[in-house]
Amino acid sequence: MLFTRASFVIALATSVVAAAPLERRWGGWGNWNHDGGRPWWTPSSSYLDFGKRFPGADSNAPTCDLSQAVMPTAPTPLPAPAPGLSLSHVAIGRGTQNYTCDLTNATAPPVAVGAKATLFNVSCLAADTPALLAKLPSIALDLPIPASDGDDSSPAYQDISGHHFFLDATTPFFDLDTTLHQYGTGQFKKANSSAAPTDAVLGTNGQGFGSVTWLKLDAKDAAGQVLQEVYRLNTAGGQPPKTCQGMAAAFEVQYSAEYWIWAQ
Ligand SMILES: *[C@@H]1O[C@H](CO)[C@@H](O)[C@H](O)[C@H]1NC(C)=O
Ligand SMILES: *[C@@H]1O[C@H](CO)[C@@H](O)[C@H](O)[C@H]1NC(C)=O
Ligand SMILES: *[C@@H]1O[C@H](CO)[C@@H](O)[C@H](O)[C@H]1NC(C)=O
Ligand SMILES: *[C@@H]1O[C@H](CO)[C@@H](O)[C@H](O)[C@H]1NC(C)=O
User: Fold this and answer.
1) Is ligand 2 within 6 A of the CB of residue 204?
2) Tens of pLDDT, residue by residue, the chain (264 residues)
3) Signal sequence: where (predicted)?
4) Ligand 1 pocket check: which of 123, 174, 181 to mutate, most ligand atoms within 8 Å of Cβ?
5) CA 119 → CA 148, 206, 213, 261, distances in Å?
6) H helices of 149-211, where?
7) Which ligand approaches the C-alpha of residue 242 most closely?
8) Contact by Cβ (8 Å): 238, 97
9) How far is the CA of 98 from the centre of ligand 4 (A)?
10) First and final C-alpha spacing in the chain
11) Which residue's CA is minimally distant from atom 1 of ligand 2?
12) Rounded distance, CA 140 to CA 93, Å?
């Protein structure tokens, strides 16, 4: 529903203010106010007024029928989720892909060494307005990365699902437990990948080296966790240059993606 979209925009917009107080505004969609230096959002347009039609929309996340949500299909389709699993959560990730380079070899390709992203709960968008959801990774890519020390108990952060990072170079971790919500945690390993569509964005502000592959991740220890499979879909950005020429020994590339999380 649209109020969910509004909440997502608020969460991202909060980080805009944190990054550049007073310098950037969401013209026409509402106003930022300040009380003792702490900004808050005053909805003043029809976009955010949609939220007011749902009592408690800002304090109680709605429950959506995730069984209605359908994952986007990669150009070369990824394998389907294992039988018996159900869709548990859908998040937008916004962060960086990390790479290292062999500085002694300019023709060597950068090596992926992990990623770090803040996850935003878009489960209801996935169930109700998938066409809108599909556009969010490329929109989020052009917004600043939320401060990692953001106060996730703040109402503006109510739609943060959690955080995604790597425990080692091959072990992506999803931590969906915050002070406000407990959606689970899990360690994963890469199961399959598929190139992003050829028309996927190149990077921030339309510049860069392309969008990272779509992925299927499986639980590292299926018996030891509830969250079983994760799909990274509709990626935006994150690809490194083809070679290490001119690159630092370690560098980051901005990205965003949808994460579809399946559970027992
Ligand atoms: C957040 O995710 C949960 C599922 O983990 C879902 O029940 C809830 O409705 C979601 N909230 C929003 C705002 O999408
Ligand atoms: C990836 O998935 C495709 C399609 O299901 C399959 O043909 C292929 O064997 C899989 N690759 C790996 C490495 O599992
Ligand atoms: C440099 O990297 C290229 C591409 O990976 C590789 O073929 C070549 O052997 C490497 N050269 C050296 C000196 O390691
Ligand atoms: C890579 O990712 C980690 C978090 O996993 C981060 O702390 C680090 O600064 C990143 N960047 C580089 C260039 O290593």
Assistant:
1) no
2) 333 343 444 444 333 333 333 223 333 333 344 444 444 444 333 333 333 334 344 444 556 899 989 999 999 999 999 999 999 999 999 999 999 999 999 999 999 999 999 999 999 999 989 999 999 999 999 988 766 555 555 555 567 899 999 999 999 999 999 888 899 999 999 999 999 999 999 999 999 999 999 999 999 999 999 999 999 999 999 999 999 999 999 999 999 999 999 999
3) 1-19
4) 123
5) 11, 22, 18, 12
6) none
7) 3
8) yes
9) 6
10) 26
11) 192
12) 9
Closest to 148 in 3D by CA, of 169, 129, 165: 165
Place of tokens 């509402």: 30
Spatial CB neighbours of 104, under 8 Å, sequence gap ≥ 6: none
Q: How many residues does the chain have?
A: 264
Tokens of 98: 């990390």
Distance 254 CA to ligand 1 centre (A): 25
Burial category of 135 from C-beta neighbours within 10 Å (exposed 0-12, middle 13-18, buried 19 and up):
exposed
| Tokens read off for 136 | 């969010």
Chain centroid to Cα 197, Å, comes to 18
Signed CA dihedral, 119, 32, 45, 16: sign only: negative
Q: How far is 242 from 110, CA to CA, in rounded Å? A: 7
Alpha-carbon distance values, 226 to 39, 108, 123, 223 (Å): 37, 39, 18, 8
Whole-structure pTM value: 0.80
Tokens of 196: 């992003």
Q: Which ligand is nearest to the CA of 66?
A: 1
Give the ligand whose atoms come closest to the C-alpha of residue 74. 2
184 CA distance to ligand 2 middle (Å): 27
